[in-house]
Amino acid sequence: MTSLIESQRRRLLRHGFIFLFMGAWLGIATAILPHPRAWLAAHLTAFFACLILVAIGLVWRELHLTERQRSIGLIAGFTSAYLGLAANIFSAIVDLPGPASQPGVPAPMPQAAIFFTLLAIVVPTTLTAFGLVMYGMRGEADRG
Length: 144
Hints:
This protein is mainly alpha-helical. The protein has helices spanning 2-32, 36-59, 67-94, 111-136. The protein has four helices and no strands.
């Protein structure tokens, strides 16, 4: 089990640095592609996903979770990170208006439907991953 935990930890760290690499390239996209505001959002999403994956990787050994909970946490974390970035890149490509970026402008269909479908997956998987990490970080006194 220890080798499985170590393998999962290294996978989290590796994917975190993949997001760091993608974030750097998306930073270049803000300067050369149309809709720089939307590309900036994708750039920041990649960096935040990098920080989250690396932080989870760093505490992975300390989590008090079953093998199944760890597996669910990994799947949920990777799903939320990659689909969240995909949703931001899609939004940048189609220049999808948002409530903060273009208030009062209705989002065109079917682009909005695609984005909201991705969001409907990203939000619960993010909450699942974060919830499992927080649950796994409970102390000795909390584990009755």
